[in-house]
Amino acid sequence: MMKSGLEDVIAAETKLSDVDGAAGRLIIRGVSLDDLVATSRFEDVAALLLDGLFDEHIDAASIRKQLGMARAALFAHVETADAALLALPPVDAVRALLARVADGEDFATAIRLMAAPAVFLPAVLRLQKGEAPIRPDASLSQSADILRMLTGRVPTAEQTAGLDAYLVTISDHGLNASTFASRVIASTHAGLTSSVLAAISALKGPLHGGAPGPVLDMLDGVGKPENARAWLSQALDHGERLMGFGHRIYRVRDPRADALKTALKPIFASGQADAGRIALAEAIEAAALALLKERKPDRPLDVNVEYYTALLLDALGFPRNSFTGVFAIGRTVGWIAHAREQTLDGRLIRPQSRYVGPLPNAA
Ligand code: ACO
């Protein structure tokens, strides 16, 4: 029997991450998500994921230094962003600029690919507003520099910590659609740039990484906590899905949702964002969970990573049309790690299909 959507099919062995959908647990290279978010910056999780997958010795300090230098060098590509490229949605514009990174399977290519979306997304967003892009500062951490290139201001400690928590939380997540795409391309030895381009193309779909923008639309549509149930009921009556809820693997709450909810609290508590948004989000979450239980009693549907992502990225100053691009900045390291694991350990991925079309006429 073919499994639609390859549900429950094991298509790879990995030492990178484990998603336990029944327990609501995520492990990244032996470390639980909660511990990782509490102790790591983006550069730490990059070192953790990439360790042993390249010839080079990899540690967080060297990754930070190399990412800084790569960001500075990649800024030259921003000048190639013409009107046609800037008319694209931000994630598509970033993908087009990413295609300028030469393909390769070495660590230098991996570094360039991790640095590229961090430079291109803020630059594209500024150019689309008619503002000059801001040159990278190689001395900063990846998160601090992204926020500085986005807003033109040195971020607060809470903002940098918030973005680090986000990038760490979404760095890797088993064999999701974009990671599978990355591994399929890697299995042909096409190169890391090709893997990342395929992965970002899979990520942008609303059933995968394209949901947090619509989550914010939903929050705005509901407006006040007391409107939540009526607004959501109407959406479900129209056959719509509630964005930020449901997951193929998790049958309980997505552990990343609470990691992000914890990460955003210091930003709201210190008055750097409107605290009323958290109350609104919590009211919508409660109403949505009650309604989904009533309407889909046989399908456990709970909050997923995209829900609090929307609140966090909004509070950090990212426009909602850029959220998928920020997701790509964080997930690129996971895509690269999986691509390398596939290249080092795996064979060409080439499954079979069953033909169910017409047969030629027997003459
Ligand atoms: N709102 C309302 N109903 C839902 C939702 C939702 N968010 N999610 C699933 N359902 C319903 C479906 O309509 C379906 O009902 P039916 O059997 O009566 O037709 C049932 O639950 C099962 O849905 P599937 O699509 O088979 O579940 P699947 O595992 O394929 O989908 C997915 C997972 C795509 C995430 C889905 O829950 C969804 O569309 N959620 C909203 C979009 C979203 O939040 N995407 C981000 C996911 S997180 C990530 O990828 C990073």
UniProtKB/TrEMBL annotation:
<dbReference type="InterPro" id="IPR024176">
    <property type="entry name" value="Citrate_synthase_bac-typ"/>
</dbReference>
<dbReference type="InterPro" id="IPR019810">
    <property type="entry name" value="Citrate_synthase_AS"/>
</dbReference>
<dbReference type="InterPro" id="IPR016143">
    <property type="entry name" value="Citrate_synth-like_sm_a-sub"/>
</dbReference>
<dbReference type="GO" id="GO:0005975">
    <property type="term" value="P:carbohydrate metabolic process"/>
</dbReference>
<comment type="similarity">
    <text>Belongs to the citrate synthase family.</text>
</comment>
<keyword id="KW-0808">Transferase</keyword>
<comment type="pathway">
    <text>Carbohydrate metabolism; tricarboxylic acid cycle; isocitrate from oxaloacetate: step 1/2.</text>
</comment>
<feature type="active site">
    <location>
        <position position="306"/>
    </location>
</feature>
<dbReference type="GO" id="GO:0036440">
    <property type="term" value="F:citrate synthase activity"/>
</dbReference>
<dbReference type="GO" id="GO:0006099">
    <property type="term" value="P:tricarboxylic acid cycle"/>
</dbReference>
<feature type="active site">
    <location>
        <position position="247"/>
    </location>
</feature>
<dbReference type="InterPro" id="IPR002020">
    <property type="entry name" value="Citrate_synthase"/>
</dbReference>
<dbReference type="InterPro" id="IPR016142">
    <property type="entry name" value="Citrate_synth-like_lrg_a-sub"/>
</dbReference>
<dbReference type="Pfam" id="PF00285">
    <property type="entry name" value="Citrate_synt"/>
</dbReference>
<protein>
    <recommendedName>
        <fullName>Citrate synthase</fullName>
    </recommendedName>
</protein>
<dbReference type="InterPro" id="IPR036969">
    <property type="entry name" value="Citrate_synthase_sf"/>
</dbReference>
<dbReference type="GO" id="GO:0005829">
    <property type="term" value="C:cytosol"/>
</dbReference>
